[in-house]
């Protein structure tokens, strides 16, 4: 048996974004990839969880770009496999106003195609967690932009991402989904 069978399938540009719900702290469920706040696209950021200081820094940095993204028609949500209690504790380190969802299951991580890691110790966390991933889902519910990492140090530069999405969303540019060649 090859090792490939144990790895998750990655979402490809132009593919339908899977229907995945995750809990919000207010008791509601968020459907990932379904924009809110009048936006027609959604940026879905998958982060490792409370135990990751680089995730904390990335989410806090993302807050600075939330308004610019919304002006471009892109809504933001972030999600992890943390428990409600872990997310509540993490809020002490976060200064964000976009929705944070929690409770992503291993099966949901696999459906998203994220790399999944086990904790190094109980002090790190108490559950398998998704490594960072980023998806931009367009108005047709398709993956327009995708980025996967197997560690917390490699992520898209937010200024470049926001600038690029602004350019892509400009109808004058007629910019298609890239990476569609099979």
UniProtKB/TrEMBL annotation:
InterPro entries in alphabetical order: AhpC/TSA, Thioredoxin-like_sf, Thioredoxin_domain
Domain Thioredoxin: 11-170
Protein name: Redoxin family protein
Lineage summary: Bacteria, Pseudomonadati, Pseudomonadota, Gammaproteobacteria, Alteromonadales
